[in-house]
Amino acid sequence: MSNTAITVASGDGIGPEIMDATLHILKAAGARIDIETIEIGEKVYLAGNTAGIPPEAWEKLRRTKVFLKAPITTPQGGGFKSLNVATRKTLGLYANVRPCVSYAPFVDTKHPVMNVVIVRENEEDLYAGIEYQQTDEVVTAIKLITRPGSEKIVRYAFEYARANGRKKVTCFTKDNIMKLTDGLFHKMFEQVAVEYPDIVNEHWIVDIGAAKLADTPENFDVVVLPNLYGDILSDVAAQIAGSVGLAGSSNIGDQCAMFEAIHGSAPRRAGQNLANPSGLLLGAVLMLVHINQPDVAELVHNAWLTTIEQGIHTYDIYKEGVSREKVGTKEFAQAVAARVGQSPQTLAPVKYNAFAGGSKSLVTPVAPALKETVGVDVFIDWPTKDAKKLGDTIKELAGSKLSLSRVSNRGLDVWPTSFPESFLVDQFRARFLSNDYAALSGQDVVDLQGRIVAAGFNITKTENLVTFDGTPGYSEATKK
Length: 480
Ligand code: NAD
Known about the structure:
- The chain is α/β, with parallel strands linked by helices.
- It folds into 3 domains: about 1-95 and about 240-355, Isopropylmalate Dehydrogenase (3-Layer(aba) Sandwich), CATH 3.40.718.10; about 110-240, Isopropylmalate Dehydrogenase (3-Layer(aba) Sandwich); about 370-470, Alpha-Beta Plaits, CATH 3.30.70.
- About 30% of the residues lie in helices and about 25% in strands.
- A hairpin with a 2-residue loop joins β19 and β20 (about 470).
- α10 crosses α11 (about 330-340).
- The longest helix is centred in the first third of the chain and has 17 residues, at about 145-165.
- The chain is elongated.
- It starts with a strand and ends in an 8-residue tail after the last strand.
- The chain binds nicotinamide-adenine-dinucleotide.
- Nicotinamide-adenine-dinucleotide binds near residues 18, 71, 269 and 276.
């Protein structure tokens, strides 16, 4: 069988040590890989490249399509961009997969029977990085959720569950509040779940879902989440399983994939032969499955489980009375390499099937809806915060096709009446609706803005209010 070319970056801090350890074990297990190295991270940033990755590195990544990456250090301040976010978005790595497993009684945990896989959407949500300062007092971020993005991640979660013999997929959203954004994610979950009658599906509102996950993780199997909730809850899940130092993760796209530990570069531990290489090693195990070497993945993972249950532990998981021997990074790697071919006796041995994730990212085409603009929200910088004066004045500017329906502040209606108890900031939203919901033209919207600007108001932004096949595509303000 021919070798698979992979790109490797040794990263910063403890990165080079844990990468050496990981590659030592992969070699001992007979991984059929050809390694191409790239330099990314701190040195590249400090040499003046604000992206932390040189152009030739992208070329290698795009050619090999498989990236094993040690953690890197992002220098503080100075406009440095997150290399992780750039890699995920540039290579279209839409699925972040983090198995969070407890290894009781060999690694201390309050949750001895936990085995949860977090599948986090990786490119959208508040991480799209679309933020604006609108007024002296108001900044905003766009929570971007798309239909294809949601469908792809949800389908990935179900495909993962099916390929890995998992029984249930749980979705967390907050669609009781964010009816359009989280509502779309939830809707796609329900739509895709129907295609997998062999797998149980359930949905929880994220707050109570998170509480249940932290309290009784044994009741969860695969959990699929939008980006922000996934970011937070995957760290919670890894931590309560025993240690963030033990978890690996994959970032999967249709063409490329990246594998890493979930922890950072731990600069204080660097160069001391102390760090635990397990997170990166388990990331490499996910890579071996992805490049269709499940046999090698099994050898590595079972050798690692054997080492852990024999009490050979690095400092971070070492515990008097539980562990047998405290070892450094190198010695740990040697211990795992020496156990290739062995299976754990108490912990359950793993068995892998080939699963090239991402190959099924179907996006169901939808017929374009009939879109009609039925109004416009005009955001106005209004430092005097006199809601009555603002509403009464701009009401007169609505023109013949529109009427001022309400003025709100931080999403609360404050005109025509407001309570003195309500706290106001300097940005107001004026909602104009077309009379009788007649469709407006782009020119009608521009004309309205023209009248408001001519009257001396400072518009910070506008949002068209559009119906899709008659259904409003905008939220209502909170009414008193
Ligand atoms: P960290 O994960 O590096 O460290 C958190 C704590 O965990 C520290 O006490 C550290 O000593 C310990 N730790 C982490 N990994 C360990 C291991 N393998 N073995 C033993 N102990 C381990 O998080 P941080 O201190 O917040 O970040 C340090 C740097 O890492 C920052 O520059 C940050 O930007 C970067 N970072 C990179 C990535 C990545 O490249 N994927 C992820 C997170 C943070």
